[in-house]
Fold:
Amino acid sequence: MFRFIRGTIPTMLKRGRPVLLWTVGLVMMASACAPPQVRLEPGPREYVAADYQAVLQKWTRSDQLIALSELDDLLTVTATFESYDFRWAYVVRYAQDYRLTVDQRRRLLERTLADAQERHQFFVALYGTNWRWVDLNKPDSGWIVRLIDDVGNETAPEEIVTIRKPGPIERTYFPYTSPWRRVYRIRFPIVTAEGHPTISNQARWFGLRFAGAQGNQELRWELEQSTR
Structure:
């Protein structure tokens, strides 16, 4: 989904018809590809390594915040929610790539799935025309990030880990990673200090909100209601 701010359609017309057609084309492409709904339930999965790309796509969302008057890409964000389901497929792919033994794969899967039930974790790559403003760990960053849902929950990260030099694992398993993007793992608690889930059991969707002086955007994961 593309979001436009600080401008009008007449402003676009002044810049010429090619700009208008380019912008409309982006909107049409975004609206034509509705992301799949997801489930958060744990439980056994039956994945093979070849399933990884489809699972990655299922759990990944992307969005852009564009200043329409300048056609300035203020913030482009792509994020993968490293859910229980995603981590299962990830381990299967990783185990095949690195030729792990059955016992090594079992131990890795157990550790990974246990971690998935202790925190909500997102792999995030973002880009903005001002490189300094998209550093989420700077006190004067142009953006803050929150875990949200449609019930009204809003949760600050408990940890933002900068991946300063993405290597072959990040570039292969998260192919939207690039030298022009800042890359993070962002972790949120599963329950609040009061013991309430940060993603409500009644939620229809959850997501990440990036907000700042230049605007805000949300990445959303729609939930299958019949399974909750």
The chain has six helices and ten strands. Residues 112 and 168 are 20 Å apart (CA to CA). The longest strand covers residues 72-81. Strands lie at 2-5, 60-67, 72-81, 119-127, 144-149, 154-155, 159-162, 182-189, 205-212, 215-222.
